[in-house]
Every structure is written in C-alpha cells, then in structure tokens.
Write a structure and sequence with these properties.
The protein is an alpha+beta fold. The protein folds into seven domains: 186 residues, Sandwich (Jelly Rolls); 137 residues, Jelly Rolls (Sandwich); 43 residues; 97 residues, Phosphorylase Kinase, domain 1 (2-Layer Sandwich); 219 residues, Orthogonal Bundle (Transferase(Phosphotransferase), domain 1); 117 residues, Phosphorylase Kinase, domain 1 (2-Layer Sandwich); 193 residues, Transferase(Phosphotransferase) domain 1 (Transferase(Phosphotransferase), domain 1), CATH 1.10.510.10. Helices cover 28% and strands 23% of the residues. A twelve-stranded mixed β-sheet has the order 3-4-2-15-9-12-1-24-19-22-17-16. The chain has a six-stranded mixed β-sheet with strand order 25-29-30-28-27-26, with helices on both faces. Strands 37-41-42-40-39-38 form a six-stranded antiparallel β-sheet, sandwiched between helices. Helix 4 packs antiparallel against helix 5, helix 10 runs antiparallel to helix 12 and helix 22 runs antiparallel to helix 24. It is a single-pass type I membrane protein. Its EC number is 2.7.11.1. One of its GO terms (cellular component) is plasma membrane. One of its GO terms (molecular function) is ATP binding. It is found in: Cell membrane.
Length: 1122
C-alpha cells in the first residue's frame, strides 16, 4: 500500500533540531548539482569550496531561464559572521518572477537562502510574498524579515524535497502580495538544487508494509540504510538516563515523516537483549527492542526507521509540540549509544501547500550593541559627550519601543475575547486585514453605520470574499460592542444568523470579519435600491415572506435557545445572501435576558434605533425579548409598505410608519399602505394573517405580544395561504379585506373599531420550544467579570499531545496551572479546587455513570448549583480525541435540546469536562424502567421523540458548520425531571462542511445504531444520524433494545428494524408496541410513529427523510393535553 498518495509529486519541508543561520555544506554532497548566487555576475566560491553561479549574464540559458520582471541589488549591510556567499546580492521585484530549471528525473533537495537586508529602491521589512515550486506552495504570505528576527539570525535557509517522476521543467516562482498597504516585494539570495541518491530515498515506490498505530494517526514504513548524505540533524549529548524526551514545535494541520537513526552499537545491544527499551511518539509506542530484533538480521540490519504522524488542527492555529521519547528499564546512552539522531519532514497537504504562518514579531534588539557602536565612535574623544549620547539614544529607544508596545497592546487586555471565542474565531493580523481591503480602500466600502464602516475584502489568497467591519477610532461604546459581538456570535450558530469568521484587535484597531452577504440588506431591497435606480426589481411577496420567516427563526433561536435579546432589530440589520436567505446581524447591543427578574433587564441607557424602539422599553428602561418582537413588527410593516420606519420629509402624520400604518388599518384602509408593486399579487388570506401578526407584535402591552416562535408559525401560514392562491388581480380583494383585518387599536372591549361587531380572537398556541437552564440561571457568559475567572489564552487541544512522559520540571510547571477554562457562567466561581472538592476527589459515591470515555460525577459547586463532571480515565489516550471533539463541537453549538458545555480542565495529570447536570438519567434507563410499569404516557414519549428530532435538526440544518453526531443512542439522550430531552455524547461528532457526505477512515458509533452504508463504505452523511434516530424511536415505543436476544426466535438477525418491518408486513403492528401503550395512545398516531421510524431506518438513503421533515411529521401528532 502506498501511503503517499500525492501525485505526480510529493513535497517535504525538512525541519531540524538546530537551524543553522548561514548554510555551510560538505563539498562531496554537491557534485553534479547547481547553486545559483542570485543577483551576482559570474562564478564565485563559498568558504566551504562550493561553486556558485551568478544569474546575471547567465551562460546556461538552455538549462536555466529567468522569467518575469525583476532587478538585482547588493545587500546594504554586510554579514558580521557566516558565509557572504550567497547572501551579498539578491534578485528583487515588486511583481512576479520565476526561475525555470531543466532537470532530470529523481528526488531533488531545494534550498532557498534569504538575507532580509536593505536593498536599493526597496523599503526595509516590506517583504511579503509566496513561493511556489511547480504545483506546490512552499511559502505563503512569507516575511523573511520576521522569520530572521524570530530566529535571532541575519540570514537563514529553507529546505524542501521534490520528487520529479520524469525529465521536466521546474519553475520556482516568487509572487509578492500586491496591495495598497505597502510596496511589498519578493526577493531571493540563493537557490540550491541537490540530487538525492536512491540509497537515501524519502519517497517509496511500489507497495510498502504499513502498520497502523494509535487511532490511525501514526504509521511507520521500513527503509534503507543511512549513509550520512545530509548531516543537518543533530542531538545534544547526554548522560546515562532511563528516559529521554525531545520536544519539537511543528505546525498543526500537516503530516510529518520522522526518521529515527539508530547507532550500530545500539542495534547490537538490542539484538543481544542487553537493553530493554521502547520508542514513543506523542505518547504512543511505535518501536521496541523486540520489534527491532524481528526486523533485523546479521545480513540486513536497519540503521534507521521511518514513522509518520498527523498533527491535527487548522494551519492558522500555529504550532504544537511533537514529542519523541525513549523509555527503558535500564540506563541508556543518548548520542553515542542507542540513537544517533533523527530527522523530521513535513508532508504537503492535499491542497499542495506547505505554507505555515509567520512567526511572532521578535523583540527589539537589545541596546548593548548600540552602546558598543557609540563607544567605538565617540568613547576615546569625549567621555561626557559619549555618555550624553548614550542616554539620549537609550531614551529614544525606550520611548519608541514603549509607543509601539502601547499601540500594539494598549487595548489588548481590555478587548481580549474569552478563551471560548479564541477557540472558535480566527484571529487576523492588521496586515492581513489591510491586504484584504486594499488598505481600507473607499472603492471597497459597502456600508456605514454607528459602529463604523464595512468593507468588502478577500482572504485566503483571494478565494474567500468577506465583509470587514471596522470600528470607529476612540469609540469606548464601540469597544464594548466589539467584545459583545465576538462573544455572542462565537457562542451562537444558526443558518439565519450571520457567521463571524474572525476578528482583529491590533494597534488600537477593532475589526470584525464576517461571511460576505452578496444580497445586501433587507432595507436595500425594500426601498433604497429602488430610489437609486428604477431598474432594480422589487421583491415579490413570497420572497418577502420567506425573508421574514428566516429572520424570525434567527430571533427565535436567540430568544428561546439562549435568552439573548438583540436590542437593535431593524431591516438594515437583516442581511441577505445570494439566494435571499435572511441572516440577522449586528449583535453589538445584544444582552442576556435575566430570567430571575420577571424576564426583564433594567438598563440605564435606552439602546436601539429610532422608529424601532419599543415604547414600553423607552418609558421604563426595562428590556425583554418582547422588545425585539415589537421591532420585528416594525420590520413587517416595512416589508408590507415598502418604506422605512421613519421618513423625515413626509407630513407629520405620515412620518412614523407604525403610527401611520396602524391608523390606516384601524380605518379599514389597508389597501393604501400596501406597496404598489405588491397590490396585484397578495392574496386576501395571506394579507389578513400577515397584518394580524404584525399588529400583535406591536401591541402596547409586552405580555400580549406573541413569541417569535408564534410569529414564525403565523408567517408560515401566510406563506401557505399565498401558495394556495392563484392570483390574477386582487387589488379589490385587498380593499375589501380591510374590513376583516383584526386590529386592537387600543380598544380593549374586543370589538372591531370600524364595524363595532364582536370579534372572536383565537389565541396562538403556546411556544413549542422549552429552554432548560442550569439551576434557573441563564447559561450565557457574563461580561462584567464579577464572578468569571479569567482563563489563560491557550488552545483547548494544546495539552492533549503533551500528556506523554515529561520531565519533572515540565510536570511541576504544568500542574501549577490548575485552572478551569469556562465557557458558560453558572453564577458562582468555578475553579479546579471547587470541582475536586465537590466531587469528593472523584469519590465513587458521587459517580453517576461510566462509559468508554471514563466516569461521570455529580458535583454540587455551591448550595443548589449542581453540575456534571465527565472525567477522562487515566491511560485512555484514545479517549483524548473524544475529549477534544466534545470541546470543539459543544463549544460552538447551543440549543435547548443539547447538553451545555460549562467548561473543562486539561493537564497531563487530569482531564475533565463540565456539563449541566441532568437529574433524570438517560433514555436507556427510562426505556428499561418503563418496561416494568403497567402504563405508559404517550405524551411523554412523543415529547422525547420531538425534543431529540429538534436537536438533530439544529445540528444538521441550522448549525454552521453542520454537525454529524455519529453516535445517537439512548444512553446519549439525557432527561430532566420534566422529561425534557437533551442530546449528549459528542465524542465521535464531526463537522460537515458544504458537501453532503464525507469519508472517514473508520466507523464511529455503536453496533445496532450504525447505518449500513456507513458501516460498509465509511461514507457518512446526515442520513446516518437519521438511521440511528429511527432505531432509537423504535426502542422508545417498544419494550425492546436495538439488538435484543428475543429476536432470535424470529430468525431475523437480532435486529429491531427487521422485527418492526416483519410485524408491519404481517399486519401485526400492535405486537410491536410496549405493554399498555396501544391502549393509552391514539392508534393512528402510534402507527404514524412506527412507519416514520421504519422509514428513518431504511437501508436506502433516498427513502430516509431529513430530520427537518421528521420534526414536521411529529409536530402534526399532538397528543391531548389531558
């Protein structure tokens, strides 16, 4: 099996333990190879005897050509140490240029030499470019000046390996990142191309033996003898010891080839059995002395071994430590003993990229060098003048550095997002933002507001269009809104909420980066664009209804799922994508609703926009979710009328839309407020429903306003009525419908204002979604810092790979940081010590359950404040991936029917997750206990089925990115004392991006619940979760388990799905249901549920419904309330 599937070439970046600043090479390595001294004329020799060829007036034009526009320049500063060749000259350009080499087939080492000096005509430190070799990206957004500063050197080299499978031309291309920010340029000082002998192959042709180790993230392959061709690796000498660990920082998101070289002495000691040892990589055993004896014999001893490891994560996350450990029961000798060295190579990603982020900005050079220079110039002539100059120079340096530090970090702590937000959101540098927007070019300006300006931008090499929202400078209020929006949008993910990609808070700038909404704002389509251009088509009535439904769902998600009040709902804050899908935006004023104070929040300042403000909020300063409902009612009026909430140029009686519109409705003149473009289109029934719900939204008494869930239901009904109506011309029908429109108009006697006839008003159904919170407190992060701990800025998975054996020094340092990273505030301090105390040091008496992950403990953090602590069992390294998955998934998703992640702790000695405590146990226990009860309440079973279907609908259709659970089963469904269900167990979950399906290397889940196509092909989609849900639904309404021994008598393979199908086919469906259920529930409803479950668990993906369809079918089955 070939483990390197990248064709036609595979590319490596060679990393070394000790990076040399200026390359010096053995002359015997260079025979027949080529070395280009860029920017120089003729041949020159390096100190090691290496011959370099200048690329000016080149005589080898048939073998090497320079393409594109570029110039040559000498470095302004001479190197104090190191070889001046090839660092004295460079080829530089502000546009793309390339070197084209004619090479023979085989493996080639490519070394690129950089000296980020000052070059004539180019500003210092303005280098920013990409390097490509053929189809591979070697370096992206690369800044040699930053890299050199981070390494503490003046010059350095980067080394790559390329496999040419046939004689071909190799183009090495240098492309500056073009932008109005700076005069960016690309440069190169030297290029070496070295042929690799076949005896030292880094590429393996044909099939090779592969052994999978450690959850399929680590593999190794035998290779050939090591001949010392490229001795650029090194290990420090050490005394005898039993354990040795090397820690190397590498970029995440790549695979790495690790070549471990064993000494001849070490091999012989191992074969003689004199030394018992094992090799671990990231805590997983990959080699033992026994393995080496089996693989080696006297005629063919392997001098080195190759291993491959995947460092999971996204490239933007930076670096993580890769651990290589030797462990022995006896003393081993490093260097001259068992191991003589190792090499590490980075493998290119599927996108053919090796590029990684630039290192952090280095600190300024220390003053002593400046002082020494001043002393050499002035010291012997005038000591007093020398001292004065030194003092002035130091003061200047200190002031300059302090100013730069203050600009870069002055607002850093003040505007620092939480650990959760940093986990989810991408952080951009100011340079990246300026390049994306062409230094905030007015040509890219797409909007203005109270917050600042919004620009269209391009990121990720121009492949992703984004909206960049820039805060006004010196805005204290904007600073608070900046943090609020990051925190809120990082916690909330919904298809009808705008997605936050990342942020920038560098050098006093506060910038938010969102998905770009090509459709603009709702207000643009309703009236702004039509005023600017008569050719702009008006939105149809169905389009407007769909937009209102989408925006309503977004607000309902904020209200019911998270208790968040938007506070600035208006048409300009409803964005539309290219398909006119509505997304609620601008959550800078959002507030968590205080459910302990009669669902109101007292604010010292009224926030919002004139024309949309709730009068009750303005009069009392008490804000509730019903204030958002009022503002949404104003938006509905805008949609119907096609005009803004306030028109200052109109007569006073028409200036405010709500006052004018409601007055017209009360007078029965609805036809006069409907947008002219809609009058030939709207059906009377659709209009009645729409106007009725808009009026109720703006009721003077907040308690009489509907919830957003009820608003969405009515809007969907209006859409349904419009679909049923075949419209030709209904203008007269609209006029006559005015008499029948229900409008309170401040008339409390229940009579129509126009006719005076009694009106029967049927109340809307109660809100369907129940919100379960921890101990009555809102599970939402507080920003006042009163009870919140300030977590350190770490990535949640940094600690996972450091759990292998560490030195005592590192162990003590890590244990000293016993902190809990908090995602959700529970109203009391949550510390590591509190958790240990509350669980009784994880005493068995507090254990409420166990599983493959570990154990779950009940912990009372404070009187009445109870949480569940899910502790990773010691030594379960495979469970670390599940630990990581739970944090990544639950850290991004929120829904009333999903378990809430409160926080976590992770160190090499202890790892645990903290969830909200669900007191009713899990569905598995519920099903087992109900089988012994004489009667079953069909309403409870229906509620549980509906709750879980809503949770999966959110994950599949409303969450961004979409989530596949992959392990839906009764033990992962938790119930509270009111039988509200919450889905848990996200250890096997994964994100699913734009594509409908994804391929995995292994099947996750539990036997009996895994979809057959997933088990057979490893191709997983949301329909796999639907299958699992179908099995759970069958268990819920029967008294059987998914794989029940009683099925054996039917000869159908111990499968509840086959059993259900058999009973349906034979007309014996009544036998399927649990004892007493058939008599307790509606027979039609039970048969509908059984058919639905069987369809969900169908072997055919095309037959299975979506979870959204499942929810609608279950909602139609409403059991009687009593």
């Amino acid at each position: 099996m070939n483990i390197f599937p990248f064709s036609p070439a595979l590319l490596f970046l060679k990393l070394v333990l000790t990076l040399t600043a200026a390359a010096g090479h053995n002359p015997t390595e260079l025979a027949g190879d080529i070395s280009i001294n860029c920017g120089s004329i003729g041949a020159s020799s390096a100190r090691n005897g290496r011959e370099w060829i200048g690329d000016v007036q080149l005589k080898l034009s048939s073998l090497l050509q320079i393409q594109g526009s570029s110039t040559t320049s000498a470095a302004a500063h001479k190197l104090i140490s190191g070889d001046p060749i090839p660092h004295k000259t460079a080829r530089v350009s502000r546009s793309q240029f390339s070197y084209a080499f004619r090479l023979k087939l085989g493996q080639k080492i490519i070394r690129l030499h950089f000296n980020p000096s000052l070059y004539r005509g180019y500003k210092s430190s303005r280098d920013l470019f990409t390097v490509e070799a053929g189809s591979f990206t070697l370096l992206s957004n690369f800044r040699a000046s930053i890299t050199a500063g981070a390494l503490g050197v003046k010059s350095f080299s980067k080394e790559f390996c390329l496999n040419l499978q046939e004689n071909q031309q190799l183009n090495i291309t240098f492309s500056p990142e073009i932008g109005q920010l700076v005069d960016t340029y690309a440069f190169i000082n030297g290029i070496e191309i070295i042929s690799v002998p076949a005896s030292l192959s880094y590429f393996q042709g044909g099939d090779v033996g592969v052994q999978v180790v450690g959850h399929k993230s680590l593999v190794y392959v035998d290779r050939h003898n090591f001949d010392g061709m490229f001795p650029k690796w090194a290990l420090q000498k050490a005394y005898k010891r039993k354990n040795e660990t090397w820690k190397i920082g590498v970029d995440v998101g790549f695979r790495y080839l690790i070549r471990l070289h064993f000494s001849e002495l070490g091999i012989k000691i191992s074969q003689n059995g004199e030394l018992v040892f094992q090799v671990l990589i990231n805590g997983m055993i990959v080699e033992t002395n026994i393995d080496m004896v089996k693989k080696g014999d006297e005629s063919n001893i392997r001098w080195y071994r190759d291993y491959m490891v995947m460092m999971r994560g996204h490239k933007t996350e930076g670096k993580r430590d890769l651990l290589i450990s030797l462990q022995s029961y006896d003393d081993l000798i490093d260097g001259d003993g068992l191991v003589s060295g190792f090499e590490i190579f980075k493998l290119s990603n599927p996108d053919n990229s090796l590029a990684s982020p630039n290192p952090s900005h280095p600190a300024q050079d220390s003053p002593p060098k400046t002082i020494q220079t001043l002393l050499l110039v002035f010291g012997q002539r005038n000591a007093i003048a020398t001292i004065a100059i030194i003092i002035l120079s130091l003061a200047n340096i200190i002031v300059h550095n302090f100013r730069e530090y203050w600009e870069a970090n002055g607002t850093k702590e003040e505007n620092k997002p939480s650990a959760r937000a940093e986990l989810i959101c991408r952080r951009f540098s100011l340079v990246q933002i300026q390049l994306a927007t062409r230094n905030f070019s007015d040509a890219l300006l797409i909007g203005k507001g109270g917050f600042g300006k919004v620009y269209q931008g391009l990121i990720d090499k121009g492949q992703t269009t984004v909206a960049v929202k820039r805060l006004k400078s010196n805005s204290r209020q904007g600073s608070s809104e900046f943090l609020t929006e990051i925190e809120t949008l990082s916690e909330l993910r919904h298809v009808n909420l705008v997605s936050l990609i990342g942020y920038c808070n560098e050098r006093g700038e506060m910038i938010l980066v969102y998905d770009y909404m090509a459709g603009g704002t709702l207000s643009d389509h309703l009236y702004k664009l039509q005023r600017e251009s008569n050719t702009c088509p008006s939105l149809t009535w169905k389009q407007r209804l769909n937009i209102c439904i989408g925006a309503g769902r977004g607000l309902d998600y904020l209200h019911t799922g998270h208790g968040v009040i938007h506070r600035d709902v208006k048409s300009s804050n409803i964005l539309l994508d290219e398909k006119l899908v509505a997304k609620v935006s601008d959550l800078g004023l959002a507030k968590p609703e205080d459910k302990n104070k009669l669902q109101s929040h007292v604010s010292t300042n009224v926030k919002g926009t004139r024309g949309y403000l709730d009068p009750h909020y303005c009069n009392t300063c008490k804000i509730t979710r019903k204030s958002d409902t009022y503002a949404f009612g104003v938006v509905l009026f805008e949609v119907l009328c096609g005009r803004p909430a306030v028109e200052s140029w109109l007569p006073e009686e028409e200036r405010v839309l709500t006052k004018w519109g409601r007055d017209k409705i009360c007078k029965g003149q609805v036809d006069q407020i409907v947008d002219k473009s809609l009058r030939e289109e709207i059906s009377s029934n659709s209009l009645k429903i729409f106007v009725g719900i808009a009026e109720r939204c703006m009721h003077d008494e907040p308690k009489n306003r509907p919830t957003m869930s009820q608003v969405v239901q009515q809007l969907e009904l209006a859409l349904d009525q419009q679909d049923k109506k075949q419209v030709s011309s209904v203008l007269n029908e609209i006029a006559s419908a005015s008499d029948d429109i229900i409008s309170p108009c401040n008339n409390e006697n229940g009579r129509s204002v126009k006719t005076g006839k009694p009106i029967n008003i049927t109340p809307l159904p109660e809100e369907q979604t129940n919100s379960v919170v921890v101990n009555g407190k809102l599970p939402y992060r507080k920003r006042d810092g009163a009870t919140m701990q300030k977590p350190s800025r770490i990535w949640s998975w940094d600690v996972f790979w450091n759990r292998a054996r560490l030195s005592k020094k590192n162990e003590l340092a890590t244990n000293a940081r016993n902190e809990v990273i908090i995602f959700t505030d529970i109203g009391v301090p949550l510390t590591y010590e509190n958790v240990i105390r509350a669980t009784g040091s994880f005493h068995i008496n507090n254990c409420t359950g166990k599983g493959g992950f570990g154990a779950i403990y009940k912990a009372e953090i404070a009187p009445g404040v109870i949480v569940a602590v899910k502790r990773l069992a010691a030594g379960r390294f495979l469970s670390v991936d599940q630990f990581n998955a739970e944090i990544k998934i639950l850290g991004r998703v929120h829904h009333p029917n999903l378990v809430t992640l409160i926080g976590y702790h992770a160190s090499e000695n202890e790892m645990f997750l903290i969830h909200n405590f669900i007191s009713g146990g899990n569905l598995e226990r519920f099903i087992r206990e109900k089988s012994t009860e004489p009667s079953v309440d069909w309403r409870i079973l229906h509620k549980i089925a509906l709750d879980i279907s809503r949770a999966l609908t959110y994950l599949h259709h409303e969450c961004i990115p979409r989530v596949l659970h992959r392990d839906v089963k009764p033990s992962h469904i938790l119930l509270d004392e009111h039988h509200n269900a919450r889905l848990s167990g996200f250890g096997e979950a994964r994100f699913l991006e734009a594509s409908e399906t994804g391929t995995t290397t292994s099947v996750a889940g539990t036997y009996g619940y895994v979809a057959p196509e997933y088990a057979m092909t490893c191709r997983v989609s949301d329909k796999a979760d639907v299958y699992s849900y179908g099995v759970v639904l069958l268990e819920l309404v029967s008294d059987k388990r998914a794989l029940d021994p009683s099925f054996s008598s039917y000869g159908n393979g111990f499968n509840i799905v086959d059993w259900a199908c058999m009973l349906l086919k034979e007309g014996r469906a009544k036998e399927f249901f649990a004892a007493g259920l058939w008599d307790a529930g509606s027979h039609d409803d039970l048969m509908e549920v059984l058919h639905l479950a069987v369809v969900c668990a169908s072997n055919s993906l095309s037959i299975r419904p979506s979870m959204k369809q499942v929810v609608k079918r279950l909602e139609l089955l409403q059991p009687p309330s009593s």
